[in-house]
């Protein structure tokens, strides 16, 4: 029976990073994962994010943006093209190649850092003295490893919709939505979260008539509502997405040819028939097969593994990170928790502030934020001041042909300390990093206002918004 210092269950963004950091700190480490490639004939590290989530979706978003630009934007640049044709299968092939490269990269990193990799499903069997026994089930071939510490990083799975089963033929989850080889004429999406908006945007740009059905009455309720309202206007009025809010789904029927959805909205009953339907109503923690109940691993009422502020479970030397525990279901949150847990096992004292974790939606324009929204500050009774600036007069944005959007900076009315930064605009997924840095180091709006920002860059809009907090915007 092989013995290790650390066993990691799951090789997604949390698990593989935790394993690498543990090995860097001198621990004999093994990572157990049951992920397989698209063909189903070989192991594939990286979890949902690399295989059927974050990475492949960004590849499709980029391909669809290029197609849309060739059709609608090139002429403005003096570029004339002939008939623009789209090959969905080729787009999927490119996406798959990126996924294969990155999952292979994790295998290389494991070898470089001397992390042992075992294929199969990992589950807790119990303790043998001070060591935890973890069973590895490789399609019925079972083995057991032992370790002093176990890090659970099994991620999440799509939340099921009781009205219909996912078949990934006509009714799709995130994986099915990433593997369509033809453009559906009519596409329905249930849920207007990150997955729904991103996948809806992809296929809308490629020619689908897209309808998004959202149960909540508020669009992007987690985002700052000034930014959310601007996004809603762009997506619906300018890009043609049909987004219905406050929807109650009554019935879904799937046939070989299409899917019909009966729903209520605004007191009216409607029925829509779609060629394909994407179900994206959130994700739930993946604890199936861990043997949690048998070993006494505690979970909360929503199925998340209970942990303290340092990711310790109720079991000695058993840790849990990422989507399977409290906090935002974000790959970068999982990775940073993985690093922190490995360092805590080594006796270090790392710190991770959930208040300073950035959120990004990779639509066009992109949406990104960090810190408190204006609605949260009002609800908490915090006195604040704000500054906004737009991309409409920004030279770099105009040159890119992407001059829509706004940056908002929220700061404490008394101390000027930054409380939140919210953005919609071109490539704000990169701009938000300055906001994260500002919150992490307790910067004031004046700190950003006093920093020289290169010209011409998109970052000047953040600089201008910081100046506007103190009512001294130079271009507003």
Characterization of this structure:
With 476 residues, the protein is of the alpha/beta class. The protein has 3 domains: 226 residues, FAD/NAD(P)-binding domain; 111 residues, 3-Layer(bba) Sandwich (FAD/NAD(P)-binding domain); 114 residues, FAD/NAD-linked reductase, C-terminal dimerisation domain (Enolase-like, domain 1). The protein contains 14 helices and 22 strands. Strands 1, 2, 3, 4, 5, 6 and 17 form a 7-stranded mixed beta sheet that branches. A 5-stranded parallel beta sheet has the order 8-15-9-10-11. Helix 1 runs parallel beside helix 9 and helix 3 packs parallel to helix 6. The longest helix has 25 residues. The chain is globular, with a radius of gyration of 24 Å. The mean pLDDT is 97.
Short description:
This protein is an alpha/beta fold. Helices cover 32% and strands 26% of the residues.
Oligomer: single chain
CATH superfamily of the largest domain: FAD/NAD(P)-binding domain
Instruction: Estimate percent helicity.
Output: 25-40%
Total domains: 3
Rg computed from alpha carbons, rounded to a whole number of angstroms: 24 Å
Strand content: 25-35%
Mean pLDDT: 97
- Number of E-state strands: 22
Low-confidence stretches: none
**Shape call:** globular
The largest β sheet comes out as: 7 strands, mixed
According to CATH, the fold-level topology of the largest domain is FAD/NAD(P)-binding domain
Distance between the termini: 68 Å
Q: Classify the secondary structure makeup into a structural class.
A: alpha/beta
Task: Please count the helical segments.
Answer: 14
Q: What is the level 1 CATH name of the largest domain?
A: Alpha Beta
CATH architecture of the largest domain: 3-Layer(bba) Sandwich
């Amino acid at each position: 029976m092989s013995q290790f210092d650390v066993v990691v269950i799951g090789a997604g963004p949390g698990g593989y990073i935790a394993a690498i950091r543990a090995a860097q700190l001198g621990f004999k480490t093994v990572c157990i994962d049951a992920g397989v490639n698209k063909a189903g004939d070989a192991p594939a590290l990286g979890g949902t994010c690399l295989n059927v989530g974050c990475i492949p979706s960004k590849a499709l978003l980029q391909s669809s943006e290029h197609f849309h630009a060739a059709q609608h934007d090139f002429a403005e640049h003096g570029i004339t093209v002939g008939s623009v044709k789209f090959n969905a299968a080729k787009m999927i092939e490119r996406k798959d190649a990126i996924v294969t490269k990155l999952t292979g990269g994790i295998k290389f990193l494991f070898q470089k850092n001397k992390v042992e990799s075992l294929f199969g499903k990992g589950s807790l069997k119990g303790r043998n003295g001070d060591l935890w026994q973890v069973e590895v089930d490789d399609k019925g071939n079972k083995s057991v490893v032992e370790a002093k510490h176990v890090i659970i990083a099994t991620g999440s799975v799509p939340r099921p919709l009781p009205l219909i089963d996912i078949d990934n033929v006509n009714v799709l989850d995130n994986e099915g939505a990433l593997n369509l080889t033809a453009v559906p004429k009519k596409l329905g999406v249930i849920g207007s979260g990150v997955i729904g908006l991103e996948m809806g945007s992809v296929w809308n740009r490629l020619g689908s008539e897209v309808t998004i059905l959202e149960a909540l009455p508020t669009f992007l309720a987690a985002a700052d509502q000034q930014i959310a309202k601007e996004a809603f206007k762009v997506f619906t009025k300018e890009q043609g997405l049909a987004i219905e809010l406050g929807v109650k789904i009554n019935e879904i029927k799937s046939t070989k040819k299409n899917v019909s959805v009966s729903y209520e909205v605004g007191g009216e009953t409607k029925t829509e028939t779609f060629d394909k339907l994407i179900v994206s109503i959130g994700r739930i923690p993946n604890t199936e097969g861990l043997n949690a109940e048998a070993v006494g691993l505690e979970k909360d009422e929503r199925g998340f593994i209970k942990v303290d502020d340092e990711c310790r479970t109720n079991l000695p030397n058993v840790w849990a990170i990422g989507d399977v525990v409290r906090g935002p279901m974000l790959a970068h949150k999982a990775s940073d928790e993985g690093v922190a847990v490995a360092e805590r096992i080594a006796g270090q004292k790392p710190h991770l502030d959930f208040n300073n974790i950035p959120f990004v939606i990779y639509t066009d324009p992109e949406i990104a934020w960090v810190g408190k929204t204006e609605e949260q500050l009002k609800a908490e009774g915090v006195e604040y001041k704000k500054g906004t600036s737009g991309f409409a007069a920004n030279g770099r944005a105009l040159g890119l042909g992407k001059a829509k959007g706004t940056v908002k900076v929220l700061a404490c009315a008394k101390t000027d300390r930054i409380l939140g930064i919210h953005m919609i605009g071109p490539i704000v997924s990169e701009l938000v990093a300055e906001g994260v840095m500002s919150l992490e180091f307790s910067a004031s709006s004046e700190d950003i206002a006093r920093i020289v920002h290169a010209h011409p860059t998109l970052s000047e809009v953040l600089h201008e918004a910081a100046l506007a907090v103190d009512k001294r915007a130079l271009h507003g």
